[in-house]
Amino acid sequence: YMNYLVVIDTNVLISALLSKHSDAATVQVLNAVFDGKIIPVFNEEILSEYDNVLHRPKFKFPDASIRVLLDAIKTYGVFTKQLITGEILPDPKDLVFYEVVMAKRDENAYLVTGNGKHFPKKPFVVTPNELLSIIYQ
Fold first, then answer.
1. pLDDT in tens, 7-39
2. Is there a contact between 46 and 98 (Cβ–Cβ < 8 Å)?
3. Which residue of 13, 21, 31, 104 is most buried, as measured by CB atoms within 10 A?
4. Closest CA to 131 of 49, 68, 45, 37
């Protein structure tokens, strides 16, 4: 039984929580966290980004849902210091996600995002669908 270290971009959490379809790729990624198939990788900055963005009024996510999700990430996940890479990304706010995955590359970590174009083209930067085909191959 393999489980996979994965840095989850905030947009994946948002899509999963907004989705009306239980079979959506982003929803399956979250389910894999709860099933223990995916071990989320994060640091304080990523957690506070999740917290801030998920609480934006436009999403109307219930506070309880956000808490369940963030608690699961903290409980099942791995806290990791970012590896300073000197990489320049189109949006500097994305850098933390990239540098945290880089810190765990020796353990074959992935970064899952709905915005691949925001990150360097690397085989470990994957879409939710690509991640699912890797972990359930």
1. 999 999 999 999 999 999 999 999 999 999 999
2. no
3. 13
4. 37
Find tokens 């990624």 and name the residue: 29
Are 87 and 120 in contact, with CB atoms under 8 Å apart?
yes
The answer to whether the Cα torsion of 44, 92, 16, 1 is positive or negative is negative
Sign of CA dihedral 49, 52, 55, 59: negative
Q: Rounded CA gap, 93 and 99, in Å?
A: 11
The b/e string for 37-70 (b: 16+ C-beta within 10 A; e otherwise) is bbbbbbbeebbebbeebbeeeeeebeeeebeebb
Whether the model clears a pTM of 0.70, i.e. scores above it, the answer is yes
Tokens standing for residue 87: 């990489």
As a whole number of angstroms, the distance between CA 111 and CA 95 comes to: 12
Tens of pLDDT, residues 49-104: 999 999 999 999 999 999 999 999 999 999 999 999 999 999 999 999 999 999 99
Residue 7, Cβ neighbours under 10 Å: how many?
A: 30
